[in-house]
Amino acid sequence: MRNDSRLSRMLHVLIHMDRHAGAVTSETLAAMLSTHPVVVRRTMAGLKAAGYVRSEKGHGGGWALARPLDAITLRDIYQALGAPQLFAIGLAVDHPECLVEQAVNGALGETMREAEGLVLQRFGEVTLGDLARDFDARYGAACGPAGQQSPSR
């Protein structure tokens, strides 16, 4: 099963957008993500509908944050992306009448629900501002006072 990296990619993009002066075009974001601008527009449309970004038309237009980073949590973005499946583990339903399968699915299902609840709770506690401050600290440690190294994307 292929990993769904949309959440981490959008968090990355939103922090870059915060540091960018003015709106950022879909083409610029697509180049950053090594994808097609249509994919960016489709994904950003969900974030726009949820009120986290806005689009600006015309010369100098593009995408911009609609809220400060401290007002957006990881859970907000996760939900705006359609709440993708968190875990790759699934339940077997080949023989739903089998009592062994029922016992296994019961235990796995309960455990997965609890784990998902904990992950979503933590996502709700972390803001994009927290991530940006972590980046700032890492950048300062890596580059030192003179800023001799360039940051990695």
From TrEMBL:
> What is one GO cellular-component annotation here?
cytosol
Extract one GO molecular function annotation from the record.
DNA-binding transcription factor activity
Q: Which Pfam families match?
A: Rrf2
- The superkingdom listed in its UniProt entry is Bacteria
- Protein name as it appears in the record: Rrf2 family transcriptional regulator
Q: What is the lineage of its organism?
A: Bacteria, Pseudomonadati, Pseudomonadota, Alphaproteobacteria, Hyphomicrobiales
